[in-house]
Fold:
Amino acid sequence: MTFGGSTAARGDEEGPHPTQSLDDTVHQRVRLGILTIAREADRVEFGFLKKQLAVTDGNLSRHLRVLEESGSITLEKGYAGRRPRTWIVLTGEGAQALGAELRALRALVMRLETPRPTSPPHGE
Structure:
């Protein structure tokens, strides 16, 4: 197989390129951060996510809404003392989506770390 006149390292026989398995909802940087942090704990507080991901309230809220609508997280509202709090909880569906994303990323890394077969110089 050739791309733009150069020989490709891997052919179609290996199946689809690993990037085809990346989920646009999960793969976005902030949303991937939310899911991975939520995976590390039973639940995570809004303010902690905001600080860890260095985003504004509005930006984080927008990403949380996308993840909630996709079924990847649930939001729990409550109080810590007298202060209202929002906690983010990873759902089973969210854990599966994160796992699939990590598998796709591992496949991509392995593809790049696997030595390429050497091919003869052009003209031989």
